[in-house]
Amino acid sequence: MDRIDPTPLDEALARILSEPSWAQQILTATAVTLATEEPFLVATTADIDTVLTSVAELLLSGLPDVVADEAMERAASALPTPGPRETQSTYALRLSAAAGAV
Predict the structure, then answer these.
(1) DSSP state for residue 62 in the 8-state scheme
(2) How far apart are CA 96 and CA 83, in angstroms?
(3) Distance CA 86, CA 65 (A)
(4) CA–CA gap between residue 56 and residue 68 (Å, rounded)
(5) 57 located within any domain
């Protein structure tokens, strides 16, 4: 059998498919921020939205609006609902798991 060497397009496609999506990156960075900044505070929807928005602004700045908007929509739709009296560090664990499913 002849060996087929990957073309530059094959290599680019493999690299793209192995990198996390923008939405995954937003969710992962949000989880890290929640787990490290105020881990023992109760996770509220308002606090989560604030961190999510801040992280998205940092990660998505410079991208075309359509890419940034879609990434933010996908990230926001994957957010789990915080449980009653759930700490930010516990919520961050569930958020990291949700990021893997995006």
Answers:
(1) T
(2) 15
(3) 34
(4) 8
(5) yes
Amino acid at 21: S
pLDDT over 70 (residue 2): no
Torsion, CA 52, CA 54, CA 55, CA 60, rounded to 10? 110
- Give strand pairing partners of 87: 42
Tell me the whole-structure pTM to 2 decimals. Answer: 0.84
Residue 53: domain span: 21-100
pLDDT digits (tens, 9 = 90+) for 21-52: 999 999 999 999 999 999 999 999 999 999 99
The pLDDT score that the predictor gives to residue 97 is 96
Whether the Cβ atoms of residue 21 and residue 73 lie closer than 8 Å to each other? no
Residue 15 has pLDDT above 90, yes or no: no
Asked whether residue 42 is assigned to any structural domain, the reply reads: yes
Total domains in the fold of the chain: 1
28 falls within a domain: yes
Q: Which residues of 17-49 are buried (b: 16+ CB within 10 A; e: fewer)?
A: eeeeebbbbbbbbbbebbbeeeeeeebeeebbe
